[in-house]
Amino acid sequence: MKRPLLAVLCFALAALLLFWAGLLTFRDRPVEQSPLPTAAAPSPSPTPAATASPAPEETPWPSPDSGGLPLDGVIVTQAREAYVSGSMRLIIPKLAVDIPILDGTSASTLLQGEGLYDYAQLPQETGGNVSIAGHRNWVRNGQITDDVPFYYLHLLGAGDTLYLVYEDVIYQYVWDKTSIIEPDDWSVIYPQGFSCLTLTTCTPIGVADHRYVVRARQVDSFPYQEDYDYPAWLNIGTVDPSPIPTEEVDP
Question: Please, which of 20, 150, 168, 221 could form a disulfide with 134 given CB 3.0 to 4.6 Å?
Fold first, then answer.
């Protein structure tokens, strides 16, 4: 009896020791942790490539066209002979000029306003030179005044626009060049080989022994619109980049 009982006790003791060893092993084992979810790194927003603002497209000069007019002298065309005084307007937005153009350049006519040379052409004549004369200033009580349309012609330069309105058509011109000439130099009102507008006046102010000449080239024409806003400037190069003659202009 003693031997079987001893065997049972040994078996029970061995089981107890195994249970206790297993318990210790489980307690000391590190707990496995589930990996924490990681937030996906946000995709960086694409940076748009810097784009330069496109420059306004430059308007090209129209190709020269003489219209068959002679380039070596003055002429009188049928259109010029039929011109009715005051029926054409000259508009220079930069100078706030909007005036009728009278017929002729006699002393009495120019006392009334700006006049069309007898040898000028009209704006609808291809290759024509619409040449206009006017006084540069008045003298009142011994003082030079600036209240005439051509006083500030020296301010016109590259890109500045001028307009003629005639027979329900708007003709657009852009400044081309400015020059000072002798008073007997008629070549500036000859046809120039392209459609143009030429303004002449006296210089220097108060002396008037030379002529101040502004030339503009015709770049467009379109039907008259009552609400047209007459832009003062056009993105266009200059044919003759020579500097504008300087003047002392003080009223």
Answer: 150
